[in-house]
Amino acid sequence: DKGNYRHFMAKEIAEQPEVIGHTLAHYVDMAKGRVKLADNLPFDFKSLDRIAISACGTAYYAGLVARYWFERYARIPVDIDVASEFRYREPPLNSNGLALVISQSGETADTLASLRHCMESGMKAAAIVNVPSSTIAREADAVFPTLAGPEIGVASTKALSCQLTVLACLAIAAGRARGVLTEQEERKLITALIELPRLIVDVLKIEHQIEGMAKSFSKAKDVLYLGRGTSYPVALEGALKLKEISYIHAEGYAAGELKHGPIALVDETVPVVVIAPHDHLFEKTVSNMQEVAARGGKIILITDERGAAEAEGVGEVLVVPASNPFVAPMVCLVPVQLIAYHTAVFMGTDVDQPRNLAKSVTVE
Ligand code: F6R
Predict the structure, then answer these.
(1) What is the Å distance from ligand 1's center to 159 Cα?
(2) How far is the CA of 253 from the centre of ligand 1 (A)?
């Protein structure tokens, strides 16, 4: 049931504060300010050599964000690849590593094959899934459910937010187990997570501004998305969402890669969405942004108040609430979802059932 919404996608975007809250309630002991996981996990974060993540599409981008988190907060090396490559790449696997697959449907053929491949080579395998009765959930050694509820829109939105929520909790648990995070640091990260639903409610208030940009996006033939650090996977996700539902060609790049090729595409007809919360990478991204501006590119900057003040005059700015950099990718995700949604609505495409796409991809 779409309720009062025009599309399932709109409803699912709006539900994100609530479903992130549900997911957090499952993984966080609110009274103690600590992550709680089952006592009988079939692996131990403390003794892991590495984590090998595989997933497809949007779920893969969740894994890309998580790589930064596991490396930074738990000092675990992470391998990550799209599942369709991972299974044929023949990476040397070792039994001290943990395989981690991420899938909304739990039925994606390539992701399932990666899971089986890792388990056959003696690795323990964990799965983050939204459908508890799915094949991937049944086969994995450990299942970490996302509590997004059924996702009907083909373009994944709330499932990604919940995947990130679970991954954030796992990274914190790993950081504690490995003695990287102090109790105080853990509590700080948990506080940031607990504030997230409220921050996203605030982000949703700029929906009107984003709707007003739809017309100009709809005229573009190409759109670029740029970000650094954990904003880079957000850029990839923004580009994928726009392609999927509006059929406008879009690409996401690590901001530092711009000058290695894609800058050749920039002219006054190309909107460039820059995702840059005011963190330790902000200055660097801004200098990439100035290179775009100098070539006439139309900049749409997603940042917080401080970032907006420092980048004044740069183009259109979408101001999101300031947050701990840990959760910033989840805050910045929402505007890129809304850009894709409103552009597609403006263009009159079938938002919930985009052409050529299926909700669950059960063939290679
Ligand atoms: C994008 C999208 C797809 C899926 C991908 C994996 O909006 O929905 O890219 O993320 O097909 O699907 P799951 O998560 O079901 O394995």
Answers:
(1) 9
(2) 20
Q: With a 6 A CB cut-off, is 288 part of the ligand 1 pocket?
A: no
| Integer angstrom CA distances of residue 5 from 10, 225, 352, 360 | 6, 27, 12, 23
Encoded amino acid at 247, one letter: Y
Number of Cβ atoms within 10 Å of the Cβ of 132: 12
Rounded CA separation 364/361 (Å): 8
User: Based on C-alpha coordinates, what's the Rg of the chain?
Assistant: 20
* Residues 149-189 pLDDT 10s: 999 999 999 999 999 999 999 999 999 999 999 999 999 99
For ligand 1, the distance from its centroid to the CA atom of residue 101, given in whole angstroms, is 12
Q: DSSP string covering 118-160, please?
A: HHHTT-EEEEEES-TTSHHHHHSSEEEE-------SSS-SHHH
243 classed as catalytic = no
To which H or E segment does residue 8 belong? helix 8-14
The answer, yes or no, to whether residue 347 has pLDDT greater than 90, is: yes
Ligand 1 atom nearest to 55, measured from its CA: 16
Q: pLDDT per residue over 213-231, tens digit each?
A: 999 999 999 999 999 999 9
Predicted-assembly ipTM surpassing the 0.90 threshold: yes
Check if 63 has its Cβ closer than 6 Å to any atom of ligand 1. Answer: no
pTM comes to: 0.97
